């Protein structure tokens, strides 16, 4: 009985408390505060001033201008100065500014990079433009130091190569070439110096020189490439330049030493050509009389056909000798 009474009183008390809360409008659930996200705070902040399109275009223009100036300076230095001159100027500049920059070498890195790059490029180019060696021929035997070196061009001098549709390429021997080589091999060291590739020179000479009159063969790799042309550089032959003769149908246009040239008419399949045979008397005379410097002898024939001029001089010499002989005979009487 008492327990029922207690439960009923508790029930009434709880009912009164609930009704009081509804009257005051208080909710049992706590009110949640609104939360502001970090993204919202960041978006609400004033953005920093950004570089506009104009500033970016100015920066781009400045970079292009600096690159163009550096490229132009490099090109001008490469054109106006040799590598040795650039190195000399760089060393002088380094010595002048050494006290100002101290041990800091960062300012010279661009110059050193340019010099290294230019050395590499010039070494590569030199392999194509310079003769393959400073000494194209081996040393002359001590017992042959008195022998003259006869350098011969190949195409249009000893042979002529011709192409036709019905037969392709054919190579023809110049009239008298066999007798010319065989006779002069007794007096000269004969060298063929051509601007053609060795793949052309070697097969032609194998068939042309079956008696071994030609001692050495030099092809395009031994020439010097200048302004689009391959020149014979006689200074690289490892021979005394005062004892070198160069015979070619294009002698003055193909040699860097015109003072050693013996021009001859280019041969283009003329059947009545005798140019090689006509030169034999002059060349034999040179070998037998051994002038001190062949260059001074050739200079006396400048502008003249050497073969015909030598014949005229020989006739004049014989006439004078005959007159002197007759004059001495007259006084003996």
Automatic annotation (TrEMBL):
<dbReference type="InterPro" id="IPR004274">
    <property type="entry name" value="FCP1_dom"/>
</dbReference>
<dbReference type="InterPro" id="IPR050365">
    <property type="entry name" value="TIM50"/>
</dbReference>
<protein>
    <recommendedName>
        <fullName>Mitochondrial import inner membrane translocase subunit TIM50</fullName>
    </recommendedName>
</protein>
<keyword id="KW-0472">Membrane</keyword>
<feature type="domain" description="FCP1 homology">
    <location>
        <begin position="143"/>
        <end position="286"/>
    </location>
</feature>
<dbReference type="Pfam" id="PF03031">
    <property type="entry name" value="NIF"/>
</dbReference>
<comment type="similarity">
    <text>Belongs to the TIM50 family.</text>
</comment>
<keyword id="KW-0813">Transport</keyword>
<dbReference type="GO" id="GO:0005744">
    <property type="term" value="C:TIM23 mitochondrial import inner membrane translocase complex"/>
</dbReference>
<keyword id="KW-0653">Protein transport</keyword>
<keyword id="KW-0999">Mitochondrion inner membrane</keyword>
<comment type="subunit">
    <text>Component of the TIM23 complex.</text>
</comment>
<keyword id="KW-0811">Translocation</keyword>
<feature type="region of interest" description="Disordered">
    <location>
        <begin position="36"/>
        <end position="55"/>
    </location>
</feature>
<dbReference type="InterPro" id="IPR036412">
    <property type="entry name" value="HAD-like_sf"/>
</dbReference>
<dbReference type="GO" id="GO:0015031">
    <property type="term" value="P:protein transport"/>
</dbReference>
<feature type="compositionally biased region" description="Polar residues">
    <location>
        <begin position="36"/>
        <end position="45"/>
    </location>
</feature>
<keyword id="KW-0809">Transit peptide</keyword>
<keyword id="KW-0812">Transmembrane</keyword>
<dbReference type="InterPro" id="IPR023214">
    <property type="entry name" value="HAD_sf"/>
</dbReference>
<keyword id="KW-1133">Transmembrane helix</keyword>
<keyword id="KW-0496">Mitochondrion</keyword>
<comment type="function">
    <text>Essential component of the TIM23 complex, a complex that mediates the translocation of transit peptide-containing proteins across the mitochondrial inner membrane.</text>
</comment>
């Amino acid at each position: 009985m008492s327990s029922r009474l207690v439960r009923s009183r508790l029930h009434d008390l709880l009912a009164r408390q609930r009704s009081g809360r509804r009257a005051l409008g208080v909710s049992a659930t706590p009110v949640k505060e609104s939360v502001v996200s970090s993204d919202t705070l960041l978006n609400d902040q004033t953005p920093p001033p950004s570089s506009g399109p104009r500033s970016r275009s100015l920066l781009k223009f400045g970079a292009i201008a600096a690159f163009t100036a550096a490229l132009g300076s490099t090109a001008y230095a490469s054109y106006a100065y040799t590598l040795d001159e650039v190195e000399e100027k760089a060393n002088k500049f380094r010595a002048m500014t050494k006290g100002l920059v101290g041990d800091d070498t960062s300012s010279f890195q661009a110059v050193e990079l340019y010099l290294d790059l230019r050395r590499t490029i010039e070494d590569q180019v030199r392999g194509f433009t310079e003769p393959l060696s400073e000494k194209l021929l081996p040393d002359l035997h001590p017992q042959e130091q008195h022998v003259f070196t006869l350098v011969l061009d190949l195409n249009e001098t000893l042979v002529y190569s011709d192409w036709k549709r019905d037969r392709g390429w054919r190579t023809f021997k110049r009239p008298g070439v066999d007798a010319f080589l065989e006779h002069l091999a007794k007096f000269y060291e004969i060298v063929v110096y051509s601007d053609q590739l060795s793949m052309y020179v070697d097969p032609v000479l194998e068939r042309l020189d079956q008696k071994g009159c030609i001692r050495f063969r030099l092809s395009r790799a031994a020439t010097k490439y200048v302004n689009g042309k391959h020149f014979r550089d006689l200074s690289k032959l490892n021979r005394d330049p005062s004892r070198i003769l160069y015979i070619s149908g294009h002698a003055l246009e193909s040699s860097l030493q015109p003072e050693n040239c013996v021009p001859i008419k280019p041969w283009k399949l003329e059947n009545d050509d005798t140019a090689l045979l006509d030169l034999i008397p002059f060349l034999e005379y040179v070998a037998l009389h051994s002038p001190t410097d062949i260059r001074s002898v050739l200079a006396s024939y400048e502008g003249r056909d050497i073969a015909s001029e030598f014949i005229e001089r020989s006739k004049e010499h014989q006439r004078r000798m005959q007159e002197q002989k007759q004059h001495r005979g007259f006084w003996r009487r």
